[in-house]
From TrEMBL:
Oligomeric and partner information: Monomer.
PANTHER family in UniProt: 3-HYDROXYACYL-COA DEHYROGENASE, PEROXISOMAL BIFUNCTIONAL ENZYME
Chief site of localization: other
Key word NAD present: yes
GO molecular function per UniProt: (3S)-3-hydroxyacyl-CoA dehydrogenase (NAD+) activity; enoyl-CoA hydratase activity; isomerase activity; NAD+ binding
Source species, domain of life: Bacteria
Organism phylogeny: Bacteria, Pseudomonadati, Pseudomonadota, Alphaproteobacteria, Rhodobacterales
Places the protein is found: Peroxisome
Family annotation (Gene3D superfamilies): 1.10.1040.50, 2-enoyl-CoA Hydratase, Chain A, domain 1, NAD(P)-binding Rossmann-like Domain
Pathway this chain belongs to: Lipid metabolism; fatty acid beta-oxidation
Catalytic activities: a (3S)-3-hydroxyacyl-CoA + NAD(+) = a 3-oxoacyl-CoA + NADH + H(+)
Protein's GO biological process: fatty acid beta-oxidation
Stated name of the protein: Enoyl-CoA hydratase/isomerase family protein
Length: 692
């Protein structure tokens, strides 16, 4: 028996204990250990077996780090069948998560006990896969197709009590899992329970309406992602064939998906989610304590930040300039919390709101451990706020700015404690969006950075470390790929063609729809701000300035690149004369959707490579995570840097150089990209070198 699985006895009961930290993943040693344990159980005089996990959970699923490597026997479907075929009864005693393959092992057992706090689910689609060890065939036999269609395409999970309700488990218990497992096993022995094989249950009824509804929903939701629809197909197989044929077909779909770039993209994203917060310079650095947060400014952003903190259980003092503005901020936050209640994210609105204090005097921040400024995006205003914070905050408190592009080093000069100053760039709506760019300035202390990462975790956000430059990681790259879109307009593409091509690539919105949503006045103001320092070779979208002067600011005025009825837009062709004027006598051409996507993505990757080369982002993976969580880049593509590796860096660089012939300013190749191509390396190689 491997060390990863122990076989113990307690009277008549065999206990098969999985001990493979940190998450009891079903790697080769666990699969082999389970197989051998079942063999031993068959041969000894134990009358019933209980499978359980050691540590904080039952089983965290297949070992994801084995995906993409040659599979080794015993395969998981065979392990589950081996358990199911046992001549003596087998119980799964589940505490904590039982996910994917972990849930499938439980379904292979004859009886299931879930401890309160357990979660059973199938997250495979989040990795570009479907359940591959009988889950799609066994679950609908236990619960009917409805719950399986709710759970599998979404990669969802259910609690112990929900699992009991839908028939996924037989009993819910509290206390110690080993004791509860033994007690259940003894009850089953007393009742002379026999093996009860899920695979032997009759085929679930086919419900055409449920399948049609699930397919309609996921065709709309998945935007090019294949796994959710494949999961629906697998559940349907269970309704049409016998069990053994169903298992084979499920495995075929699973193995097909295993070969797809989508699977590789999702797994890249899974591991990056964890790697992004591992920074060598923070090893051994303890974060400061945060028990009270101050927020300065109660506009959309400040109210969103306050909401995020309140939802995480942090008391907030929000400072506004007068009573009316403070009242308005409270109303916005109350609305945000109401929406959180509706989405099932919050139970006690009033209790949460009781932790909000809205004031007009900075003195109320004397006790705050962290103050986050979210006032008007202007250097003078920000510096003034920071100077005032410097006078009221206690020693050791952190002074954070939510600026989205301003120089954090300069902001820090208005305080006497630049080591305590950091950028915390939230994305709007701040209580919903997952990304937090942590902008580390020249003098920011390491424990201040560590505190920012700890705060992100508490707020259930993904933090990415960024250096100081105009726009940091995300908005700097955004400005460049938006620039590529504007140049394509000048060369003959329409905004609507560009939006359609970008959506076909998998983003939820194209750049012009996004502009309409954010408000075209924002772009106008950015252009104004940059006008003085703009390189004369740069391109200005003069049509967008004209739209601003017309008062066509996007959704909020009902007109922008689209004309809106509610939130639905149709192309606003009245902007075409402005575009024609900007094009002047430039030669015009047409673009295919693929050409649009390639230019847009190439601009994104080229700028991202500059951002990495300059050390603004630590690694290519930090860019991938930023674009995924802050800019709607499709998760199943892993991120722009993974996309670039798939496309091949030499070909991408060759395209960039070809475009540079007519526009050398915009398409100047990144030195890092050139270096990687010269050395025959990829962004993935860089990630490996820089991960501790
Ligand atoms: N295979 C391999 N490694 C895994 C893993 C898996 N199924 N699940 C987690 N890990 C690793 C993580 O990468 C992390 O490694 P690190 O410490 O080197 O970064 C470590 O285990 C801890 O994971 P983490 O997610 O930080 O722990 P958690 O306690 O917050 O959450 C889980 C535990 C199981 C809920 C969570 O890890 C999870 O959802 N895992 C994926 C489950 C899954 O998709 N299984 C289906 C596979 S088909």
């Amino acid at each position: 028996m491997t060390k990863a699985v122990r076989y113990e006895r307690d009277g008549d009961v065999a206990l098969i204990v999985i001990a493979n930290p940190p998450v009891n993943a079903l790697g080769h040693a666990v699969r082999e250990g389970l197989w051998q344990a079942m063999d031993r159980f068959a041969q000894d005089d134990a009358r019933i077996a209980v499978i359980l996990g050691q540590g904080k959970l039952f089983l965290g699923g297949a070992d994801i780090s084995e995906f993409g490597t040659p599979p080794r026997e015993p395969h998981l479907p065979d392990v589950c069948t081996h358990i199911e075929r046992s001549a003596k009864p087998v119980v799964a005693a589940i505490h904590g998560p039982a996910l994917g393959g972990g849930c499938e092992v439980a379904l292979g057992a004859h009886y299931r006990l879930a401890m309160e706090g357990a979660r059973l689910g199938f997250p495979e689609v989040l990795l570009g896969l479907i359940p591959g060890a009988g889950g799609s065939q066994r679950m609908p036999r236990l619960t009917g197709v409805g719950p399986a269609l709710d759970m599998m395409p979404a990669g969802g999970s259910v609690s112990a009590s929900e699992a009991l309700k839908i028939g996924l488990v037989d009993r819910v218990a509290t206390g110690d899992v080993r004791e509860a497992g033994l007690a259940y096993a003894r009850d089953l022995l007393d009742a002379a329970a026999e093996p009860r094989r899920t695979g032997a249950l009759s085929r679930p009824t086919h419900d055409a309406e449920a399948f049609d509804a699930a397919r309609a929903l996921w065709t709309k939701k998945s935007r090019g992602e294949v796994a959710p629809l494949a999961a629906i197909d697998a559940v349907e197989v269970a309704t049409r064939t016998d069990f053994d044929a169903g298992i084979k077909e499920e495995r075929r779909i699973f193995l097909d998906l295993m070969q797809t770039p989508q699977r590789a993209g999702m797994i890249h994203a899974f591991f990056n989610d964890r790697k992004v917060s591992k920074l060598p310079e923070l090893n051994g650095v303890s974060p400061r304590e945060i028990a009270h947060v101050g927020v300065i400014g109660g506009g959309t952003m400040g109210a969103g930040i306050a909401t995020a903190c309140l939802l995480a259980g942090l008391p907030v003092t929000l400072v506004e300039r007068d009573e009316a503005a403070a009242k308005k901020a409270r109303t916005t936050i109350t609305g945000n919390l109401d929406a959180a209640v509706k989405r099932g994210k919050l139970k006690d609105r009033d209790g949460t709101l009781a932790h909000l204090n809205t004031v007009t005097d900075y003195a109320a921040l004397g006790d705050a451990d962290l103050a986050i400024e979210a006032v008007f995006e202007d250097m003078g205003v920000k510096k003034d706020v920071f100077a005032r914070l410097d006078t009221v905050l206690k020693p050791g408190a952190i002074l954070a700015t939510n600026t989205s592009y301003l120089d954090v080093n300069e902001i820090a000069t208005s305080t006497s404690r630049p080591g305590d100053v950091i950028g915390l760039h939230f994305f709007s709506p701040a209580h919903v969006m997952k990304l937090l760019e942590v902008v580390v300035a020249g003098q920011t202390a390491a424990d201040v950075t560590a505190t920012a990462f700890a705060l992100a975790k508490r707020l259930k956000k993904t933090a990415v470390k960024a250096g100081v430059c105009d726009g940091f990681i995300g908005n700097r790259i955004l400005a460049t790929y938006r620039g590529a879109a504007d140049r394509m307009i000048l060369d003959g593409a329409s905004p609507w063609e560009i939006d359609a091509a970008i959506k076909a690539f998998g983003l939820p919105m194209g750049p012009f729809e996004m502009g309409d949503l954010a408000g075209l006045d924002i772009g106008f103001m950015t252009r104004q701000r940059k006008a003085a320092t703009r390189d004369p070779r740069d391109v200005v979208p003069t049509w967008a300035d004209a739209m601003y002067h017309e008062g066509w600011l996007g959704q909020k005025t009902g007109r922008g690149y689209y004309t809106y009825e509610g939130r639905k837009g149709t192309p606003n062709e009245a902007i075409l004369p402005f575009i024609e004027e900007a094009r002047g006598d430039r030669p015009q051409r047409s673009f295919t959707p693929e050409e649009i996507q390639r230019r847009y993505l190439a601009a994104m990757v080229n700028e991202a490579a500059k951002v990495v080369g300059e050390g603004i982002a630590a690694r290519p993976l930090d860019v991938d995570v930023t674009l995924l969580y802050g800019y709607g880049f499709p998760r199943w593509r892993g991120g722009p840097m993974l996309w670039a590796d798939h496309e091949g860096l030499p070909a991408l660089l060759a395209d960039i150089k070809a475009w540079a012939e007519t526009d050398p300013y915009f398409w100047e190749p990144s030195a890092l990209l050139e270096q990687l191509v010269a050395e025959g390396r990829s962004f993935a190689d860089l990630n490996k070198e820089n991960v501790q």
